[in-house]
Amino acid sequence: MIISNGAVLLIEFRNDQDSGVHYNLPAGGVEPGETLVEAVIREAREEASVDIEVGPVAFVYEYQPTKNNNLYGETHSVSVTFQCDLKPGSTPKLPDNPDSNQTGVKWISIEELPSIQLYPEICQDIMNYYNGLPYRNYVEEHEIQRERLMGGSP
Hints:
Blueprint: E1 3-4, E2 7-14, E3 21-24, H1 36-48, E4 52-63, E5 77-86, E6 102-109, H2 123-130, E7 138-140, H3 141-150
Parallel strand pairs: 4-7
Antiparallel strand pairs: 1-2, 2-3, 2-6, 4-5
């Protein structure tokens, strides 16, 4: 997670059937022989063409398929989000060979977060983190889905 000047850096993706866009923090899987921090640095380069300094862990997100009726597939995953800073002179841009569904690399203001579709749905948590308010530093997808059904936010 890279926050600068009141905005968070997000990766924009085309939704299935070209029905709009959604956003993700720059992220991806850890490759064999790679540490979490090395993966964070590599993914930031691959998805946003930036060099970063990796800071402390801000969030941990877990998706457990059976607790979510396989909403996002059958693979159990845990995501660790680090607070990161751009290295001087590093400017975010669409990479030369982006993912086929990636359409942009954008700064989205913290205030604008509630108006976009971010996966996982942690907009309020990012806003609270940024503003120094209590936030969920660990969240499970089934909690997010339960909140959606209840019409509330964390």
